[in-house]
Design brief:
Number of strands of chain B: 0
Number of helices of chain B: 15
Helix content of chain B: over 70%
Strand order of the largest sheet of chain A: 6-7-8-3-9-10
CATH class of the largest domain in chain A: Alpha Beta
Distance between the termini of chain A: 25 Å
Order of helices and strands of chain B: HHHHHHHHHHHHHHH
CATH superfamily of the largest domain in chain B: MetI-like
Number of domains of chain A: 2
Order of helices and strands of chain A: EEEHEEHEHHHEHEHEEHHH
Radius of gyration of chain B: 24 Å
Largest interface: B-C, 67 and 79 residues
Oligomer: heterotrimer
CATH superfamily of the largest domain in chain A: P-loop containing nucleotide triphosphate hydrolases
Number of strands of chain A: 10
Chains: A alpha/beta, B mainly alpha, C mainly alpha
Strand content of chain A: 15-25%
Structural class of chain B: mainly alpha
Chain lengths: ~250, ~300, ~190
Amino acid sequence: MGLEIENVSKSYGSNLVLDAVDLDVQPGEFVALLGPSGSGKTTLLRIIAGLQFAEGGRLVMEGEDITGLEARLRRFGMVFQSYALFEHMSVADNTAFGLKMRPRGSRPSRSGIGERVKTLLDMAEIGHLAERYPSQLSGGQRQRVALARALAIEPRLLLLDEPFSALDTKIRKGLRSALRDLQRKVGISAILVTHDQEEAFEIADRIAVMSEGRIEQFGTAEELLRTPASPFVAEFLEGMANYENQGAGI
Amino acid sequence: MSTSISHASRQRSSARRVIPGFGLTLGVTLLFVCLIILLPLSALFFQLGQLGFADYWRIISSDRTLAAFRVTISAALMATVFNACFGLLLAWVIVRYKFPGKRLLDALIDLPFALPTAVAGIALVALYDRNGWMGMLLAEMNIKVAYTWWGIAIAMTFTSVPFGVRTVQPVMESLKLDIEEAAQTLGARDIQVFRHIIFPQLWPSFIMGASLAFARSLGEFGAVIFIAGNMPYKTEIASLLIMIRLDEYDFPAASAIAGTLLLLALVVLVLANIATGRAGRHLSREAKGWQLQPCILRCAP
Amino acid sequence: MGGDAVPFPGRRALVTIIELPFSISPIVAGLCYLLVYGSTGLVGGFLDQWNIQLMFNLTGIVLVSLFVTCPFVARELIPLMEISGRDQEEAALTLGANGWQTFFYVTLPNIRWALLYGAILANARVIGEFGAVSVVSGNIRGETMTLPLQVQLLYDDYNVAGAFAAATILAVIAVITLILRAVIESRHPNVH
């Protein structure tokens, strides 16, 4: 089950950005879309989120065809590259947003929302920042808010668009393992878009290496290194060979 | 689950707009634009069409109309040249230097826009009249401003000052200092830096500001009529002549003059758009950000 | 509305048309309105059959004021919405908000100061509008006499003191507008 992507294509004018892409994500699995800029990985993520629509192909989530479903009905939590925090709302209000937007029937009570927000913020280790506004936060804190906000809607899938690119190297490493732990604890599938090989290798169970709108290879870090499917994969992952030897993969 | 539905929706899925409400908001916008802007404007051209070319020409080529246009256009040109140059200078001072009272000066530039034109008009008369401060001063030098062509030019200049400044200012703010520094390290003198580095980047906004100032001056009414003296053939502007024809219920004549005035302003603006499009075609996206929005200006008439 | 969020063909044309009233002489604008909504006009003639008169009364002044000020708010909002982009709206959608919710909880709060600012400028302009209003008002004393028209009337009657008194009120309103502008600008630097 999980998410199945079948034969998805997308072009901007005459420019083909996704060329018959297939991908499957198992429940609880962490998948990375890895590739240089312009390889189509962000477009694929936005199509999965429902923020863009493919010209051909199908998206199936837990057996349900969601190809034409609106973004708001998909219940996929997304962390944007810019984080896209609501600047006029406090951290707590940002986190509560998705729950407050639910129709009255399925909306938790006011106190229910409050408790859930508190749990999430504590889990993301930013419980003490609940009343702050986004402009008063550091980059790392903003990312945690974006993550807590996405998790608040109890998403069926977590989508991460280069969530570390705006942070400096030092904080990045700490946040990576925090993200991985959080995803395991919640137990949902996640898709991470990144151009950083090390990041993909450290976080993901399986990695899809993308180039020019196609998935060159999809497999575990070990598979990619042992048996690269194309010269592109071998070249793109050059330098990562030692990485596995150091045993830093997990 | 909903396979059949989503199959149907997939047909149009790639053309779908993600942010909802497009149809509704665009529909309301277009209705508003049609009723408030386009319908009245097309009525003017409808009226002109009924008039026929011979009658139109008779009205436009009459001595009094020609004189009014001559006065209006020449005074507007005067105001435009002054404001284009003065605006560049003022924008430069505000963007590049820090000095006490800078914020006040910045705010004052908008005064001609915020001040009702009638108020500007009687204030200018009070100043330049025989008994006013400036008027007395100039009278000693035997210069008469109030109730002459010069009065009209000054009133037009006053009301269009912000255009010259506010179009150039944002572009000037966005200029990167390191380009100028690079030019200096390559041996350019200050005047060369301005001539070869700064001005080419400002040029499109400079043209745009000048043409907006010109369009505004052509149509200015409130500020001008107080100081103009309104003597037919001498100090009568085109807008006033429209007003006079209207009072005589001579709608065809009023429409003919108004249509010509409108066309003149539009032609200038279109030409400026084309010129700035050419001049700016190689500029960075940032430098011509304002230009993608041709008339979205910082100023507020 | 919709200036930034959704690119569509004809967008540039629409933006330019909304800007048109800035470059049109107020007298010409007033005349255009007389031609459409006056009793001999296209729409006015039709309404005249039911004795509905739009010109030479308050309705006429309101209509022509709409024309003169229609670019103000749009012009404040379009650059702001271009800068802030569509990320926050998209985030709201992925969190399950529908179109109205996205607008009321995300878009509107982000643009509220620019909206207020545009409204203040439009208000000041309407109060001070002279040319367009003098064409469509009919100058009926006590009924359709606006403050700027009163200034001219008093001045033409050689009542200079009265004219200056009325003008002072208008000048004060203008200065208050500029002060409000400075206040909003210093508190919310994103708004111009």
